[in-house]
Amino acid sequence: MSLSGLGDTGKAQPPPALFPAPESDTPTPGRRRGGASPNRSSQDGSVQNGPPQNDDAGRQLVFFGADAAEPTVADLAGLLAGPGEVVRMGGTARLSVQVDAAWRVHVLVAELASRGLAASWEPTEGARHAVRTSYTRVLKPLAAAWLHGTTKRPPAAFHLTGRRLRLWLAAAGTPEPPDCFLLRLGADDQECWESIGVALASAGLAGTLLGPGEGGPAYRITGRRRLARLAELVGGAPNAAPAGAWPTRP
Protein backbone atom coordinates (compact mmCIF):
# COMPACT_ATOMS: atom_id res chain seq x y z
CA MET A 1 0.00 0.00 0.00
CA SER A 2 1.10 3.54 -0.64
CA LEU A 3 1.08 6.03 2.21
CA SER A 4 0.88 9.62 1.10
CA GLY A 5 3.52 12.10 2.06
CA LEU A 6 3.67 15.88 2.12
CA GLY A 7 1.52 17.69 -0.37
CA ASP A 8 -0.95 14.86 -1.12
CA THR A 9 -4.64 15.55 -0.95
CA GLY A 10 -5.24 12.66 1.43
CA LYS A 11 -4.25 12.49 5.07
CA ALA A 12 -0.47 12.56 5.43
CA GLN A 13 1.18 9.52 6.95
CA PRO A 14 4.60 9.44 8.62
CA PRO A 15 7.52 7.37 7.36
CA PRO A 16 8.19 3.96 8.99
CA ALA A 17 8.15 4.24 12.79
CA LEU A 18 11.38 2.37 13.41
CA PHE A 19 13.20 5.65 14.00
CA PRO A 20 12.05 9.09 15.17
CA ALA A 21 11.44 11.54 12.37
CA PRO A 22 14.47 13.78 11.79
CA GLU A 23 14.22 17.44 12.63
CA SER A 24 13.92 19.71 9.63
CA ASP A 25 17.17 21.35 8.60
CA THR A 26 15.46 23.76 6.22
CA PRO A 27 17.15 27.16 6.51
CA THR A 28 15.11 30.10 7.81
CA PRO A 29 13.65 32.06 4.86
CA GLY A 30 15.89 34.93 3.85
CA ARG A 31 18.92 33.50 5.67
CA ARG A 32 21.52 31.39 3.89
CA ARG A 33 23.11 28.58 5.83
CA GLY A 34 26.76 29.19 6.42
CA GLY A 35 26.59 32.58 4.72
CA ALA A 36 26.91 31.11 1.22
CA SER A 37 26.71 33.61 -1.59
CA PRO A 38 23.82 33.56 -4.11
CA ASN A 39 23.49 30.64 -6.51
CA ARG A 40 24.44 30.75 -10.18
CA SER A 41 23.62 28.27 -12.93
CA SER A 42 26.21 25.96 -14.42
CA GLN A 43 26.31 24.66 -17.98
CA ASP A 44 24.34 21.51 -17.10
CA GLY A 45 21.56 23.52 -15.44
CA SER A 46 22.67 22.63 -11.92
CA VAL A 47 23.28 25.13 -9.16
CA GLN A 48 26.70 26.25 -8.06
CA ASN A 49 27.58 28.44 -5.13
CA GLY A 50 29.94 31.28 -4.40
CA PRO A 51 33.01 31.06 -2.15
CA PRO A 52 32.35 29.23 1.14
CA GLN A 53 32.11 31.17 4.37
CA ASN A 54 32.76 30.20 7.98
CA ASP A 55 30.08 28.33 9.95
CA ASP A 56 28.97 29.10 13.51
CA ALA A 57 32.07 27.43 14.94
CA GLY A 58 34.34 29.46 12.67
CA ARG A 59 35.36 26.35 10.69
CA GLN A 60 35.94 26.88 6.98
CA LEU A 61 33.16 25.23 4.99
CA VAL A 62 34.22 22.85 2.25
CA PHE A 63 33.61 24.32 -1.19
CA PHE A 64 30.54 22.55 -2.61
CA GLY A 65 30.02 20.89 0.80
CA ALA A 66 26.49 20.07 1.95
CA ASP A 67 26.59 22.88 4.52
CA ALA A 68 27.64 25.53 2.01
CA ALA A 69 24.32 26.07 0.22
CA GLU A 70 20.57 25.87 0.51
CA PRO A 71 18.78 22.74 -0.77
CA THR A 72 17.78 22.88 -4.44
CA VAL A 73 16.01 20.50 -6.80
CA ALA A 74 19.28 20.17 -8.76
CA ASP A 75 20.69 18.28 -5.75
CA LEU A 76 18.45 15.33 -6.64
CA ALA A 77 20.96 14.42 -9.33
CA GLY A 78 22.75 12.73 -6.42
CA LEU A 79 19.96 10.17 -6.19
CA LEU A 80 20.26 9.52 -9.92
CA ALA A 81 24.01 8.99 -9.53
CA GLY A 82 23.02 6.08 -7.28
CA PRO A 83 20.02 3.77 -7.69
CA GLY A 84 17.41 6.53 -8.16
CA GLU A 85 15.17 6.52 -11.23
CA VAL A 86 13.29 9.27 -13.02
CA VAL A 87 10.37 8.79 -15.41
CA ARG A 88 8.42 11.26 -17.52
CA MET A 89 4.69 11.60 -18.05
CA GLY A 90 3.58 14.37 -20.37
CA GLY A 91 5.12 17.60 -19.17
CA THR A 92 5.92 16.20 -15.72
CA ALA A 93 8.38 13.77 -14.16
CA ARG A 94 8.66 11.65 -11.02
CA LEU A 95 11.75 10.57 -9.09
CA SER A 96 11.87 7.31 -7.13
CA VAL A 97 14.43 5.24 -5.26
CA GLN A 98 14.35 1.95 -3.35
CA VAL A 99 16.14 1.85 -0.02
CA ASP A 100 17.03 -0.94 2.37
CA ALA A 101 16.28 0.64 5.77
CA ALA A 102 13.54 2.70 7.39
CA TRP A 103 15.93 5.43 8.53
CA ARG A 104 16.70 6.20 4.91
CA VAL A 105 12.99 6.80 4.28
CA HIS A 106 12.92 9.39 7.07
CA VAL A 107 15.95 11.21 5.70
CA LEU A 108 14.83 11.22 2.08
CA VAL A 109 11.26 12.33 2.82
CA ALA A 110 12.67 15.23 4.85
CA GLU A 111 15.18 16.10 2.12
CA LEU A 112 12.48 16.09 -0.55
CA ALA A 113 10.20 18.22 1.64
CA SER A 114 12.98 20.76 2.13
CA ARG A 115 12.96 21.18 -1.66
CA GLY A 116 9.20 21.67 -1.82
CA LEU A 117 8.44 18.23 -3.26
CA ALA A 118 5.57 15.97 -2.23
CA ALA A 119 6.77 12.49 -1.29
CA SER A 120 5.27 9.09 -0.55
CA TRP A 121 6.67 5.70 0.42
CA GLU A 122 5.57 2.09 0.48
CA PRO A 123 7.10 -1.22 1.57
CA THR A 124 8.44 -3.50 -1.16
CA GLU A 125 9.86 -7.00 -1.29
CA GLY A 126 12.83 -7.98 0.83
CA ALA A 127 12.12 -5.53 3.67
CA ARG A 128 12.86 -2.62 1.36
CA HIS A 129 10.98 0.64 0.88
CA ALA A 130 10.21 2.66 -2.23
CA VAL A 131 10.34 6.45 -1.83
CA ARG A 132 8.92 8.55 -4.63
CA THR A 133 7.86 12.06 -5.47
CA SER A 134 4.61 13.05 -7.09
CA TYR A 135 4.62 13.80 -10.81
CA THR A 136 5.55 17.44 -11.12
CA ARG A 137 6.75 19.93 -13.72
CA VAL A 138 9.53 20.90 -11.31
CA LEU A 139 11.38 17.68 -12.13
CA LYS A 140 11.01 17.94 -15.91
CA PRO A 141 14.44 19.61 -16.46
CA LEU A 142 16.14 16.91 -14.37
CA ALA A 143 14.48 14.19 -16.42
CA ALA A 144 15.37 15.93 -19.68
CA ALA A 145 19.03 16.12 -18.64
CA TRP A 146 19.28 12.49 -17.52
CA LEU A 147 17.02 10.52 -19.85
CA HIS A 148 17.93 9.45 -23.37
CA GLY A 149 14.69 7.83 -24.38
CA THR A 150 14.07 5.68 -21.31
CA THR A 151 17.77 5.14 -20.56
CA LYS A 152 19.32 6.98 -17.62
CA ARG A 153 22.62 8.66 -18.43
CA PRO A 154 24.44 11.54 -16.69
CA PRO A 155 24.65 14.83 -18.60
CA ALA A 156 28.05 15.68 -20.06
CA ALA A 157 28.85 18.33 -17.44
CA PHE A 158 27.69 16.25 -14.46
CA HIS A 159 29.58 16.79 -11.22
CA LEU A 160 29.06 15.86 -7.59
CA THR A 161 28.57 18.48 -4.90
CA GLY A 162 28.24 17.89 -1.18
CA ARG A 163 24.46 17.99 -1.25
CA ARG A 164 24.28 15.55 -4.17
CA LEU A 165 26.63 13.19 -2.36
CA ARG A 166 24.60 13.56 0.83
CA LEU A 167 21.45 12.38 -0.95
CA TRP A 168 23.27 9.50 -2.63
CA LEU A 169 24.76 8.43 0.67
CA ALA A 170 21.39 8.70 2.45
CA ALA A 171 19.79 6.46 -0.15
CA ALA A 172 22.54 3.91 -0.77
CA GLY A 173 25.70 4.48 1.23
CA THR A 174 27.03 1.58 3.32
CA PRO A 175 30.06 1.60 5.64
CA GLU A 176 32.65 -1.17 5.40
CA PRO A 177 34.81 -0.97 8.54
CA PRO A 178 37.47 -0.06 9.21
CA ASP A 179 38.17 2.35 6.35
CA CYS A 180 35.86 1.77 3.38
CA PHE A 181 32.48 3.08 2.28
CA LEU A 182 30.26 1.75 -0.51
CA LEU A 183 28.18 4.08 -2.67
CA ARG A 184 25.73 1.79 -4.42
CA LEU A 185 24.70 2.20 -8.04
CA GLY A 186 21.63 1.26 -10.05
CA ALA A 187 21.82 -2.38 -11.08
CA ASP A 188 20.54 -1.63 -14.58
CA ASP A 189 22.48 1.60 -15.08
CA GLN A 190 25.71 0.27 -16.60
CA GLU A 191 25.87 3.20 -19.03
CA CYS A 192 26.13 5.54 -16.02
CA TRP A 193 28.83 3.81 -13.99
CA GLU A 194 31.92 5.13 -15.76
CA SER A 195 30.72 8.74 -15.82
CA ILE A 196 29.78 8.55 -12.15
CA GLY A 197 33.26 7.26 -11.36
CA VAL A 198 34.79 10.24 -13.17
CA ALA A 199 32.62 12.62 -11.15
CA LEU A 200 33.68 10.93 -7.91
CA ALA A 201 37.34 11.25 -8.83
CA SER A 202 36.85 14.93 -9.66
CA ALA A 203 35.40 15.41 -6.17
CA GLY A 204 38.50 13.84 -4.62
CA LEU A 205 36.76 10.51 -4.02
CA ALA A 206 38.28 8.18 -6.60
CA GLY A 207 36.83 4.75 -5.92
CA THR A 208 36.97 1.16 -7.09
CA LEU A 209 34.05 -0.06 -9.17
CA LEU A 210 32.60 -3.31 -7.83
CA GLY A 211 30.52 -5.40 -10.21
CA PRO A 212 27.36 -7.31 -9.29
CA GLY A 213 29.43 -10.41 -8.52
CA GLU A 214 31.67 -8.47 -6.12
CA GLY A 215 28.99 -7.09 -3.83
CA GLY A 216 28.01 -4.27 -6.16
CA PRO A 217 27.29 -2.54 -8.34
CA ALA A 218 28.92 0.12 -6.20
CA TYR A 219 31.93 2.34 -5.88
CA ARG A 220 34.15 1.51 -2.93
CA ILE A 221 35.74 4.57 -1.35
CA THR A 222 38.85 3.42 0.50
CA GLY A 223 41.27 5.05 2.89
CA ARG A 224 41.04 7.44 5.78
CA ARG A 225 41.90 10.48 3.69
CA ARG A 226 39.11 9.87 1.18
CA LEU A 227 36.63 9.02 3.94
CA ALA A 228 37.54 12.26 5.68
CA ARG A 229 36.93 14.08 2.40
CA LEU A 230 33.56 12.32 2.04
CA ALA A 231 32.61 13.30 5.61
CA GLU A 232 33.54 16.93 4.92
CA LEU A 233 31.45 17.04 1.77
CA VAL A 234 28.27 15.37 3.05
CA GLY A 235 28.13 17.14 6.41
CA GLY A 236 26.92 15.82 9.74
CA ALA A 237 24.84 12.66 10.12
CA PRO A 238 21.04 13.05 9.89
CA ASN A 239 19.17 12.60 13.16
CA ALA A 240 17.57 9.37 11.94
CA ALA A 241 20.83 7.69 10.88
CA PRO A 242 21.95 4.91 13.25
CA ALA A 243 25.41 5.00 14.80
CA GLY A 244 28.15 4.08 12.35
CA ALA A 245 26.00 4.52 9.24
CA TRP A 246 27.48 7.91 8.31
CA PRO A 247 31.10 8.97 7.67
CA THR A 248 32.57 11.15 10.38
CA ARG A 249 35.44 13.60 10.39
CA PRO A 250 38.56 12.35 12.16
Protein architecture, described:
- By secondary structure, the chain is α+β, with helices and mostly antiparallel strands.
- It is 24% helix and 20% strand.
- It contains 6 helices and 12 strands.
- The chain has helices spanning 77-81, 102-113, 140-146, 162-172, 190-202, 224-234, and strands at residues 40-41, 47-48, 85-89, 92-99, 119-124, 128-133, 147-148, 151-152, 173-176, 180-184, 208-210, 218-222.
- Strands 3-4-6-5 form a 4-stranded antiparallel sheet, with helices on one face. Strands 9-10-12-11 form a 4-stranded antiparallel sheet. It has a two-stranded antiparallel ribbon with strand order 1-2.
- Helix 2 (102-113) packs antiparallel against helix 4 (162-172).
- The longest helix is centred in the last third of the chain and has 13 residues, at 190-202.
- The protein is globular, with a radius of gyration of 17 Å.
- The N and C termini lie far apart (42 Å).
- The relative contact order is 0.16.
- The model is unreliable at 1-13 and 17-64 (pLDDT under 50).
SS content category: alpha+beta
* Quaternary organisation: single chain
Strand arrangement within the widest β-sheet reads 3-4-6-5
- Gyration radius (Cα, Å) is 17 Å
H/E series: EEHEEHEEHEEHEEHEEH
**Shape field:** globular
What is the makeup of the main sheet? 4 strands, antiparallel
- Poorly predicted ranges: 1-13, 17-64
Distance between the termini: 42 Å
Quote the average pLDDT: 80
What is the tally of beta strands? Answer: 12
Instruction: Count helical runs.
Output: 6
Beta-strand residue fraction: 15-25%
Share of helix, binned: 10-25%
